[in-house]
Write a structure and sequence with these properties.
By secondary structure, the chain is of the alpha+beta class. The chain is about 40% helix and about 15% strand.
Length: about 475
């Protein structure tokens, strides 16, 4: 069969694709989108090697300029997701002997705001890391800082992080220096660079007293934070803006700007005869036109013998608002697709929806939230444990049983009344125990001790008592 058809094997070939931006440049682009300044977006897309047909990169012809408007959706998405996740975080559960110390450390580091800033930057940049350090000039307790992904490098060995490099920029005598703080297992080292060249730490006063520090080899005083794995940059995190979302944001801004341009260009048109044209009262010259409000068209005529119309005329053009609205909604759907539901952002897509329909629309937000919560429930306990171990290394103390639990409440859950009705049916049909019913009804809003006592109270009121079995002896 092969000799009859004579099938030639495919020739091996290579495909070369040039990345437009590296991870740091992409992070800078995402940061500009988050900042939400239209002027900055315009400058950004004129400098990066981007598609020149993109809305923010396009340069209009002179005399055909339009107002470019940014909707602010990218920042709103991140801020609302951060609020949705952290507002449901309950009090951190620690062993009793560590509660007071953690309260002091959390208060000094303003832990709630630190966590909010860290999550927000991680969502739009891709990743980052917490750095834990000791500086007795500032505090006797560990200092916790967060560095976003554009100021962090991860060094991996066999797929595991072995070093985290924190970058800090200093300026001294018109020179720009970058300090690399290398956090590894059992050590913290420092290197100073000016451009690409390494220079001694004594070159600038900010780093002249830094020395290499060693400690327990099982401890690294840094904790990475990453929600999604990047498909473009190996070993790095992925921003919510990656995967084509910035193109959707660009299209949404174009749809909204075009709509506003159509509204401005569809203002009522005034046709004025020469006698009605506004003129300078001193020179008699026609007044200069204002493109925003003082717009009119001078009509021919003014004399009856030439057939002209000597009366002003006002014409209102029609605006195809349905078409513009459909385009805007489609572009908005592409921006939010797979990340957050419109109702979470306060976008009322249907005013007649009942509570159940609204909860159905919140499922996209719920999936994203669950992913973020799952990561935080791993990272926050690890961060707190690392803080205590760092404090132990400095103070010479030893902490045992550092067990940390970070509970989160439910999001978009049914009302308490509907839960009581549903769970009550399960109890009456004998398919749910009292313990399961209480746990399902109250979830993480009550402690295990409270729920255990509530079960005992319910059993007592229903006539079920637990008694100690008597022991008879001869």
């Amino acid at each position: 069969m092969r000799s009859f058809l004579r099938i030639e094997p495919a020739q091996s070939s290579s495909i070369t694709i040039t990345e437009r931006l590296d991870f740091v440049s992409n992070a800078a682009k995402n940061r500009i989108w988050y900042r939400g300044n239209g002027q900055e977006l315009s400058e950004l897309y004129k400098q990066i090697n981007a598609d020149r047909t993109a809305f923010w990169a396009a340069v209009p012809t002179r005399g055909m300029e339009i107002r470019k408007v940014h909707t602010g959706i990218p920042r709103l998405m991140i801020d609302v997701l951060t609020s949705v996740v952290l507002s449901d975080m309950n009090d951190i559960k620690l062993p009793e002997h560590l509660t007071e110390l953690w309260s002091k450390i959390a208060e000094e580091n303003n832990f709630d705001e630190l966590l909010q800033s860290a999550l927000s930057q991680t969502l739009y940049i891709g990743d980052g890391a917490f750095k834990i350090s000791i500086d007795t000039d500032i505090s006797e307790n560990p200092i916790v800082e967060f560095y976003p992904g554009d100021k962090v490098e991860f060094v991996r060995k066999r797929g595991r992080i072995c070093e985290i490099i924190f970058k800090t920029v200093y300026t001294h005598k018109s020179g720009i220096y970058t300090l690399h703080e290398i956090y590894g297992y059992g050590y913290v080292d420092y290197k100073l660079y000016r451009g690409e060249s390494e220079c001694p730490l004594t070159a600038i006063p900010q780093t002249k007293e830094l020395l290499r520090v060693t400690f327990d080899r099982s401890l690294i005083m840094a904790v990475p934070l990453m929600i999604y794995q990047s498909q473009c940059y190996e070993g790095r995190g992925q921003s919510l803006y990656d995967g084509g979302k910035t193109d959707s944001f660009d299209a949404l801004d174009e749809a909204w700007s075009q709509w506003l341009y159509a509204v401005r260009m569809s203002r009522p048109q005034k046709f004025l005869p020469p006698d009605y044209v506004p003129r300078n009262p001193y020179s008699g010259e026609p007044l200069n036109l204002n493109s925003f409000d003082n717009v009119f068209i001078e009509s021919t005529g003014g004399m009856p013998e030439n057939g002209g119309n000597n009366r002003p005329e006002l014409i209102q053009p029609a605006i195809p608002h349905e078409s513009y609205l459909s385009t805007y909604i489609t572009a908005l759907d592409l921006c939010l697709q797979g990340i957050i539901s419109p109702s979470t952002l306060g976008i009322d897509v249907k005013k007649l929806d009942n509570a159940e329909a609204q909860r159905e629309k919140e499922k996209t937000t719920l999936y994203t939230r669950n992913k973020i919560v799952g990561v935080l429930q791993t990272v926050i306990p690890k961060l707190i444990e690392t803080v205590f171990r760092t404090y132990a290394e400095y103070s010479g103390q030893t902490f045992k049983n550092i067990e940390v639990e970070v509970p989160f409440g439910e999001y978009a859950n049914p009302s308490f009344e509907s839960q009581v009705e549903t769970i009550g049916k399960g109890r009456t049909q004998n398919i749910m125990s009292i313990e399961a019913a209480v746990d399902e009804l109250y979830g993480d809003t009550k402690t295990d001790e409270w729920k255990a006592k509530e079960v005992e109270r319910i059993k007592s009121e229903t006539g079920v008592e637990s008694m100690t079995e008597p022991i008879f002896t001869e």
